[in-house]
Design a protein that fits this description.
22% helix, 4 helices, eight-stranded mixed beta sheet, 21% strand, alpha/beta, single chain
Length: 295
């Protein structure tokens, strides 16, 4: 048994040890001045001096609404606005443009909050490397991101249903992921428009892949690729219109899971049939010419 003096010494040492733990903290856990977990404070804060990558561009802070021109939306809802352009020099400092889902707009009733549902005119910017579209956006206009020569990354948002054409002409886009919400892209109306009104065109950059949902059935040519490349890999469900478009151009297909919608009129299925008929005709003519020469 411990005598009283030894007991008091050990008790004092135990109390001292507890005090040290309370002062220095247990393990690696840290708290901020508000009593919350401060692990986030060790994260690198992204700004326009940060390197932009495929993994981090979606995490940049929202761009100030002062960098945009916006008007009441064409959809007729007084609570909706469309972004139709950008303001210089405010926009010029941004390498990543994160479009806000809400903006304040002066009205007869004072400042009112409006929802951004349309985007266009985010174009001819030398510094921008990435653009993030919020889930509030339903439509993207023709030539919305044209001649952004350093644009490599785009997040279209999960609610976009319709886009115009020539979206990414003159960009360095590295990949294109089309959301499941998309219903129409470009000008899928006749043989001339589906080829002339493409969505993207290879210039400085080379698209590595395009992800096409099986639910997208109405779209003009998604990519006019440079002849010195093999084109992008197409990620799409088997039997989709995306697969037919890829086969028309001879692109490599990687099959992914997803719902597939079969349209009454298959735009790219029809083009495949025309292509096969043309090749068969050319083959028959060539064989006929060979037989004629042999005789």
């Amino acid at each position: 048994f411990l005598n009283m003096e030894e007991y008091m010494k050990r008790k004092a040492l135990a109390l001292l040890f507890v005090c040290v733990l309370l002062l220095t903290g247990c393990g690696n856990a840290k708290t901020d001045s508000k009593g919350g977990d401060s692990d986030k404070s060790t994260d690198t804060k992204l700004d326009n001096n940060s390197k932009v990558t495929k993994d981090n561009f979606r995490k940049f802070p929202e761009t100030s609404q002062d960098a945009f021109v916006f008007h009441l939306s064409e959809d007729g809802d007084v609570n909706h606005v469309d972004i139709t352009g950008v303001k210089s020099p405010e926009i010029d400092k941004y390498k990543v443009i994160v479009i806000p889902s809400k903006v304040k707009m002066k009205t007869a009733k004072g400042d009112e909050t409006k929802t951004v549902v349309g985007v266009s005119g985010i174009s001819h910017l030398d510094n921008v490397e990435a653009i993030v579209i919020p889930d509030s956006v339903k439509t993207i206009g023709t030539e919305a991101f044209v001649i952004n020569k350093n644009l490599k990354y785009i997040q279209l948002g999960n609610s976009v249903e319709k886009t115009g054409y020539h979206l990414f002409i003159g960009t360095s886009l590295e990949f294109l992921e089309i959301p499941d919400s998309m219903k129409e892209m470009g000008s899928p109306y006749n043989d001339y428009l589906i080829f002339s009104n493409q969505i993207a065109q290879g210039t400085k950059g080379r698209l590595k892949y395009i992800k096409i949902p099986g639910t997208l059935t109405e779209f003009s040519n998604l990519y006019l690729y440079p002849y010195d490349s093999d084109g992008p890999i197409i990620k799409t469900p088997k039997g989709s219109e995306g697969e037919k478009w890829a086969k028309y151009w001879g692109f490599k297909v990687e099959y992914i899971k997803g719902e597939v919608v079969t349209p009454e009129h298959s735009i790219w299925g029809e083009q495949l049939e025309k292509q096969a008929e043309k090749e068969a005709k050319e083959k028959a003519e060539k064989e006929g010419s060979t037989e004629g020469n042999s005789n």
